[in-house]
Amino acid sequence: MFLLMGLIGGLSGALFVKANSVLTRYRQKNITTKYNKIIEAILVSSLTTTLCFSIMWAVRDCSPLAYTSSSFPLKMMCADNEFNSISSLLFSTPERSLRTLLHDPPMTYSISVLTIFVLVYYFLACITYGLSVPAGLFIPSLLIGAGWGRIIGHLMHTIDPVHFSDPGKFALIGAAAQLGGIVRTTLSLTVILMEATGNVIVGLPLLMTLTVAKYMGDCLSEGIYDEHIGLNSMALLPWTPHSLSITKRAYDLMSNPVVYLYPIMRVSELVERVTNNLHHGFPVVVGSTNSSRFSYGTLVGMISSEHLALLLQKRAFLSKDGNIVYSLTYKDYDDAYPSYPKLGDVLANLSCDDMDAYLDLRPYMCEAPYSVPETMTMTRVYHLFRLLGLRHLPVVDSQNQVRGIITRKDLRRFKFEFVSGEYRVEELIFSRKM
Q1: In a shared domain, residues 129 and 247
Q2: Quick one: which of 27, 138, 320, 373 has the most CB atoms within 10 Å?
Q3: Model confidence, pTM
């Protein structure tokens, strides 16, 4: 039964992700201004209130007060010694509604009430997630799963009331299955739910259910968070590269022309190079360059845009006789961390005298940056980014000449799909200019 509930959670979770993904694409295309986002939030809020009140008036399911564990049950249109079961689910806080589904006696809610509640809450949670309001999925997902889990528990109690006396246990398993089918995590959710209930015995059933829900959902769609990462074009890398990425090399991924710097540069020349190329890091090179042949000099270091902005802000320039006017100290770095000045803001505040000065990058650059040969496979490049937490990686030839640079966006540029019995590789252009 637990495995079957895991399958149901995986299927309903994948359907939730697909439906919310379609709705999010529509929002990104048509609801872009602040005014439209406010109007959308108001409309969804009005729809939620209207729908819940309509259901409360249409479904007058009254139960005795002895059937609820709530200290303040909602009577609505019921008699003095009764409470309205559907309103106690829809008009209570989600935390209280979840508590009642887990702990109330078996006959508190009818199957029809639970079915209506699950369908309504499923729909409302799907259209609410993605609004420009602070909202999450953890409690709503648990509540949806607890609803249909209690339906299964109610049916099992009807069949065999002796061995299945507590439908709340099925509500807990259903809550785990639904949440696992949407967010696709297993061990962490098992520990969270086991600690929240204070029941170690349910650990193994929860783990089994969450595992089945995750793998069932993965067969149909990505998790909700992974889906939204892709929809928002965030360069967050998955855990492993695609198996076909081994056919790609570093020179297939690298971006060029490369914005490079020299160890000692005139500030005006540096500003000209980086003004429209505010990337996170810049390779420092020496020797001759040939942009037409994609050769940008010998790599001697890397400097981040944060450190470069701090250098310019502190006016750590060279004097006319070649001496350093001001040297950055560890205190300067500590004071600036983690909110380093923005490079664009610093460039806008430079004076004419600053433009005529020279800047020595050698004391501040990384003299041994990570780099890869241009023939390295995409798989190995991918693992370097994942394991070392890199944001950029220079590509060099056999003579250590810079040929290009790879960023996380470049690794996300290729999309692999299995269509009609064969794999297709699609290139998604984020930014070719670096």
Answers
A1: no
A2: 27
A3: 0.74
